[in-house]
Amino acid sequence: MTTALRSSTPGVYYQAVDAGGPAVTPLRTDITGFAGLAERGPIDLPVPITSWRQFVSWFGDVIPAGFLAYAVRGFFDNGGVRAWVVRVASQDPVAGAASATADFGNGTTPVWRVAASTPGAWGNRLTLNLREINRIQLTTTGTDPQGRWSRVPGVSGLAVHDEVRLTQPGTPPVWRVVAAVDPVNSQVWWVPPDGPRRGYDLPISGLDRTAPMVLESIEYRAVVSESGRPVGLYDRLSLVPENTGYGPLVLGAVRPPVDPVTRSAAWQPPAPIMIEELRTDVTDLRGLDLDPTAEIPLTAGRSGLSTLSVDDFVGQPVAPDDGPVAVALKRRGLRALEDVAEVALVAAPDALVRPEPPRPAPPPPCVPDPCLDRADLLTTYPAPDVDAPPLFTDEQVYAVQAATVEQCERLRYRFALLDPPYPAATDRADGLRGVLDWRARFDTGFAALAHPWLSVLDPLDPTGATTRLIPPSGHLAGVYAAGDLETGVHRAPANRLLQWALSASLEIDDTRHGVLNDAGVDVIRTVPGRGLRAMGARTVSSDPDWQYVNVRRMMSMVEKALDIALQWVVFEPNDVLTRARVTLSVTNFLLSLHERGMFAGSTPDESFYVSCDDTNNPARERDLGHLLVEIGIAPAVPFEFVVVRVGRVQDSLRVKEGAAP
């Protein structure tokens, strides 16, 4: 809209005004939400992830006890660019997740508790070297008779809230906090000139005020190592709460942002450790008792997997009158993803987790001593103890997947990626019975079931010689995302080469493929000469109108875009002008989608229609405050069957392609 310039000359002036409402724009449909088991990271908190490397910095690498990391890597390797990840763990008060910790004090008083930043047994690999650093060392040249200030040769480097130690030969040291600095008179005040403000604004006592004192600044440096490898250095930490280097402030607990969508750019992976204040009396300023050469191990970390339950994955509905504690207990796993409005695909591969025993690290090479008996050279390297999750029954797996589908149906703008159970994806003797029985449990247009599982090179094996079977939902989420970004949500998410996958867990021939395709199971198979591909794009719906994945997802995108863009209509006058503006906005939006090839018709009239007039908004509806916009769309369905006709014409051979009837 443009505005005419004001003028004092009488006359007619023109002002161009946009008669339509705010433009409707397509929304992203490639963003995927994952819920599963991870080595580290915050629990039940959605975290935005834009690369595999960022996932590792937040949640760690692949683990034997979960599929989440494999799924996320498959997502990014196959074209995904943005995901939200929720780590799942048990909330059992005894066997649940816990952070590894170590306490530090001064004498018998505990002062700081240093813990791994997030729960998990991974924290038991951390060691901490905490040492005192003295950047400034001065000798006082005089002290106030009342002990309120001391004079020093120079105050450069000293600042308010710095902690210092004052010593004299043969006398116990005294700790004080700088209350004020007077650079003109080179004075350091221990009590503010206008009187004490804090409990530790105290005059010098216990030392000879008439004699020189040695003044040393007190700060702390923390060096964190994981399995002997340095992973963090934090300098100039302070015991004083008002100091900008206050340990619990610099290395505090991981806190979620107020809005996980609008503030996602501010998310940074947590430091490996966090510091908690244990003192009840902050006026005790004695320094920490430290061995500067000691590597203190953090202990007692637990991953909280042995008591894992379905509730840990799905959470519970949040009531309007629930308080913060109740909301935190209920908004868990998949339920935590509900608040992230931009999520369009959802997967929970760890509902089918089959924990594998961790592979021990290969022993160091040794040179046999020819004088020793060979039996003495045999050594057993036991696998480390791991808090393994339980193996869910089929009913428990179904409960998790049913909750995923229910969320997508209720929110309407999401699509669930389902995985078949392990036996159905690996049992050759059972044939198709297992996966068909699993498919029969669902009837919805908001989900797709892919079969079978995928075999990938396992990063847990340093030799690169071991493979692991994983559910395919993560890889397919990447395929969906890549198609959405390259072409659009109207393209069927199939017939793309799968990256970071060696083979399928079962070889499926044409006959079995046909049976599964008719049943609404999307088959993953090796196509001769073209590699491993997803060769299906059907939902698990029995309704023919919603049997194609791209049709359901495109309609969800259109509905959500209109839902967001037409909010301006609320409380507008229900008159002809408002209805015309709505019609214009919706029509322009659908025209843009038609131009991108999302609809079946060759012309706009064949592709869609928009009705918002007196015919579907009679007076009785308008009197109730209702406005009805009726939209009809002819979605483009994928070609599943292409017929190549080969025939002889006189002395030549003609090849012609055509769609199967």
TrEMBL record:
InterPro entries: Tail_sheath_C, Tail_sheath_structural. It comes from the Bacteria. Pfam families: Phage_sheath_1C. Residues 541-646 form the Tail sheath protein C-terminal domain. PANTHER family: PHAGE TAIL SHEATH PROTEIN (PTHR35861:SF1), PTHR35861. Belongs to the myoviridae tail sheath protein family. This is Tail sheath protein C-terminal domain-containing protein. It comes from Flexivirga oryzae.
